Amino acid sequence: MNAVAAAEAPSVADFARTFRHVQAQIHKVIVGHQQAVEELLSALFAGGHVLIEGVPGTGKTTLVKTLGLALNLSFNRIQFTVDLMPADITGTRVILSGEDGRREFSFQPGPVFCHILLGDEINRATPKTQSALLECMAELQVTVSGMTHTLKPPYFVMATLNPIEMEGTYPLPEAQLDRFLFKVRLEYPDEGEMVRIVTNTTGPEDAGVEPIFSVGEAAERIEGLKRLVREVMVAQPIEHYAARMVRATQPSSSRYIGQQTNGLRVDAVDRYVSFGASPRGAQALIMGAKVRALLDGRANVAYEDIDQVAPAALQHRVMLNYAAHSDGIDAAHVVERVIQAVRPARA
Amino acid sequence: MDHEPAQARGEEKSHLILDQVASIRSRLNALALQKGLFGGLTFILCAAVLIVGAAFAFSPLTFLLLGIGVTAAAVAGVARTARAAWRMRTSNERAARIADERAALKGRLTTMVAMRVEPRSSLWPYLIEDTLALREQFAAAKVEPRRLSRWLWAALVSCVVAVIVMRLAYGVRTARLGANSPIVNAPGEPTADLGDLDIRPADPSVEPGTEIDADPATLRKLAEKLREAQRGGQQGSPTSRLMANARDAAKALQNKLTGGKPAEPAPRLRLTDKKGGSAGKSAAESQNNPQANGTQDNPQNPGAGQQSDQNQMQPNTAPTPGVPDMSGLAALNGLNNDDPDPNGSLAQNTPPNARKVPPGGTLGSGGSDHGSGTDPQHLYGEAEKPPLGNDTFKIPVEVGPSDEGSSNTAPASPPQRTKSTLNASQAPDEPFERASIPASDRVTIKRVFER
To answer: What domain range includes position B104?
Structure first.
């Protein structure tokens, strides 16, 4: 049994090959955004969820949809609005008439019951509806009327945020932001990319995305790759490095870091950050670094892997204060300063 | 069944990798050790060269300040280098991390060293194979090409410079030592104002360095004057005295290094033994040695013992600390009646039979060689040695003729010898030249003298 399992277990080379294959399929549709696509797939194989931020028309929805097609997994999309209720996304009990005419309550699953869920413009829903996603994302289950319904793995939530048109929106609470492994930015395409987008989308034929896996094996193969990611080894100094980086995002004046001193002070953090990353940030760093190590054909995490995933893993976990907003400082700037401050302290 | 051999091969491969990490560690530690040793040596040599150079180039005070600064800098440099070398010491984990960085291994060695004890991942064999394939990249010679620290060259250069400077300094020092030899250039003697002292030369033919005699009180005053002259430059505030001491110490060190003229020795009054019994001993030694002081019967020198017995009858003869015992000079000062000190009248109080020379003794009276201190009874008698013990003071004092008298009655010095031309009735005090006797008169002269 074990021998069979070992024989079926994907290797490091399998992982990199599958990853690049999916990436190539996505880029048949999505022009540019190489880093965003790589981070998106990294979060998928690391077992996390992604918050996508981008202006309208940059291909957020198309990206998620293409991913579902490439992986041949079930895909649902929820357009979050102000009047959207939690039951609209989780499902509810409805009265159904049986063949014998009897009426009984039956659970009608909501759109969260799928493998890949796109929550479009999640900041337009009320916090009550937003928090309905928490249980799904963290525990892969939904509780309705006292009954718990399990979600089938792999479960991957991608929520999009529109950074403009902020009127009438409900910014995501920190607790919910923390549950997203990465925050991916979709930048505005340059001229060459714009031409390619126009060419690909205005022609008579759509770009055909070929599924990587068959319907029956897709979930199992992806879960196997996720298990392989967790096998990647991380040396203790590198774990300390990640922990030090996360602690460096906390301002030294924070009352939540306790008596223990931070050990590393970053001026930008002290000036512009009201609250830094949580331990989930360190987990995100390590898991993302493991994916990057496998992509590089390694079974171990390097310092460079931590540095590469740090912006995506920490940006949305750093809460900026008013001084940052007034000075025009964003979280990416602060995280970059943190990386620069921690890098010499590799010990 | 294939599992155990595969595991053994994996262990063997991991040991190969870890051995290579250990060799990197050894090389890095050797470099750290070399840095500590050669770095410290470099700082010490540079400091020595600077100090020797400063000894030749600067005044004592500048040399002192520069020496302190250079020494402090050298100590700081040695400490800093030792600290840096201590920090450079390498463990296996650190060696693996350095190798990862220099060979761009992206944490492979760090992970292997960190997880070698308990590899819990199924990817461990993969990591071993992956790392082993890159083995040539992290060879010790590639990770750290240097076997010798750069500090070795710094130490060698400083050694060469130090040898050159030391040879030059040795040559200059030797030349200066030759120039400052006591034969060539005798050290100067301290001078003191002796205006209120009654000192008479032992011999009218006054020459520099002449031994002089005086009564004990005068000699005590003289000794005090010399001491005051010696410490004349050391008076002042404690700070200035401290500075003077520091300057003297710096000067002494500078002279040692450069072979310069050594500091003048402290003037000392000492008891000398005309017989050579206690010559060269200091006054303090003389006080501690009863034989040298004549305070105990000496079988080889009964005169001294006799003198000692006489001294014991005198009051106030105990030597003052720091002042030489001058009781042995008492007999010499019999004619000096100005001093009411009983020691001064010792020669007059001594019975005549005590002045006879005992067999083998050294007791003697004055004579023509004894000047104004001679007993008139013995002027025409057999010359006797002065009734001294074997101890006396030898005081190097610059003495010359002067018109000023130390007292109102006696001149300070004998009249000068003058030469004048002879008149017609005078003839030089020389014998006539013997004339030859004519042959005709020889018989007559012979007859007269035979008669």
So the answer is: 7-178
